[in-house]
Specification:
This protein is of the alpha/beta class. The protein has 14 helices and 17 strands. The protein has 2 domains: 164 residues, no CATH class; 220 residues, 3-Layer(aba) Sandwich (Rossmann fold). The chain has an 8-stranded mixed beta sheet. Strands 3-2-6-7-8 form a 5-stranded mixed beta sheet, sandwiched between helices. A two-stranded antiparallel ribbon has the order 4-5. A hairpin with a 7-residue loop joins β15 and β16. α1 packs across α2. The mean pLDDT is 93.
């Protein structure tokens, strides 16, 4: 493209970051031990049905966690089945949500139970704000339901309750209709209504337990905790604080270009976690925080995202191949339900990574392109290895948590002007 100037690029090196590590050595054992701690015998009877709610996130070993939760329920003589709890994800269709689960390794064959995917909901109550709370009909028709989800900071709001079991109960289990209602009301009343809505649902007495998951800085499962309904809300608040302390981050501030190799729904609800990128734009509020990236270049959409490009509007530049991989129907269904059309806005897209990188650096206002402070990551959930430019060399040397793995050298592109995989040498 004639308008893209080929600039002189700075040298780069691969660095390794030391993150908080607290991985569970034996996930199946930990899941079963956590569940065994629950006093269920007085509540359950053999033959009762249990709807197990599973979302769309690429949580570490989520298929293993779900499988062993189902195994535990079966050992108690119960009859579990799976219901997707992902709001409007998967294009807000049963087949789309089944496909999302399949990409996470969760299928009827693998799990040994039925997956009942539909979008039917029932209104179970209203909040004082007028917010109508909807809930999966299949889950309500079961004797009990169980929710399995990761607890972590949300990408666009701060509250005592953010992403986790309560959000799954109030938005994920509300399917498209419930998610639309909730996001609409949140514009005026904020997402703090999640806590009130969760309390309303829990008061119905249909929840058997929740299984809360925490990941460490490497994205490995660090905690599996089974929670009884009467303690769920307050305990989730404590887990959120812990989850925040475990998260990784980009160890630099005020960078000129942030390169993200992959983004997608399996990584974050908006494709790239704004807690990591520091950038968010939304009707309920914008923010621009650490690492204060002037330009964000997103290279590719994950296959697991199944074409859903929600969040691409938070990038400044992308590639033609990413745009051509988008399923706009799924992307629009998700962003309109979330009242976030700006997150579906397609940025400037170019034929190669080299052109995209040139466009980013060309528009940073630097006197010398060799001074560009650049950081490249695989995705916002993978922060152990980063490629950084020479302008960050002093900060790398001064940080005891960072180790330089390769000498400074030119950025390498293939014959088509694209970057290779970001991996340890």
């Amino acid at each position: 493209m004639d308008n893209i100037i080929s600039v002189q690029l700075p040298e780069v090196a691969l660095i390794k970051q030391k993150l908080y590590r607290s991985a569970i050595p034996d996930v199946p054992y930990t899941v079963l031990e956590s569940l065994k701690s629950l006093p269920l015998e007085d509540r359950i009877k053999p033959g009762q049905t249990v709807a197990v709610a599973v979302g769309s996130r690429g949580i570490h070993l989520i298929d293993t966690v779900v499988f062993h939760c189902l195994k535990f329920l079966k050992s108690k003589g119960l009859k579990p089945f799976i219901v997707p709890a992902m709001g409007s994800h998967g294009g807000a269709t049963p087949d789309g949500q089944l496909n999302v689960l399949a990409k996470l390794g969760i299928t009827e064959k693998a799990m040994g139970v039925k997956i009942i995917a539909d979008m039917d909901v029932t209104e179970v109550g209203q909040l004082s704000s007028g917010t109508r709370i909807y809930f999966s009909q299949q889950a309500l028709q079961a004797d009990y339901f169980v929710a399995i989800n990761r607890v972590k900071p949300h990408t666009k709001f701060r509250a005592p309750i953010e992403s986790g079991l309560c959000k799954m109960l109030t938005i994920g289990m509300g399917k498209k209709k419930g998610a639309s209602e909730f996001h609409l009301r949140a514009v005026k009343h904020s997402f703090s209504i999640i806590e009130k809505a969760a309390a309303l649902i829990l008061a119905k007495g249909k929840m058997l337990f929740g299984l809360a998951l925490l990941e460490d800085g490497y994205g490995d499962l660090a905690r599996v905790e089974a929670l009884f309904p009467n303690a769920l809300i307050e305990h989730e608040k404590k887990l959120l604080k812990e989850a925040r302390s475990l998260m990784g981050s980009i160890p630099f501030d005020f960078i000129d270009v942030l390169i993200i190799d992959f983004f997608g729904k399996n990584i974050s609800g908006i494709g790239m976690d704004s807690n990591i990128t520091g950038r968010h734009r939304d009707i309920v509020g914008d923010f621009f925080t650490t690492p204060h990236a002037r330009r964000i270049f997103v290279r590719d959409l994950t296959p697991e995202s199944d074409g859903n490009g929600t969040g691409i509007g938070l990038a400044d530049v992308t590639t033609r191949r990413l745009v051509e991989s988008l399923d706009l129907q799924k992307t629009y269904a998700n962003t309109l339900t979330a009242i976030s059309p700006e997150k579906a806005a397609i940025p400037i897209y170019l034929d190669s990574d080299r052109q995209a990188l040139d466009a980013c650096i060309q528009t940073t206002g630097l006197d010398s392109t060799l001074d560009a402070r650049m950081v490249r990551i695989k995705d916002t959930a993978s922060l152990e290895f980063l490629q950084v430019s020479a302008a960050l060399g002093t900060e790398v040397s001064a940080n005891p948590k960072l180790e330089q793995l390769t000498p400074w050298g030119p950025i390498e592109f293939d014959g088509k002007g694209n970057l290779g995989a970001l991996s340890r040498p």
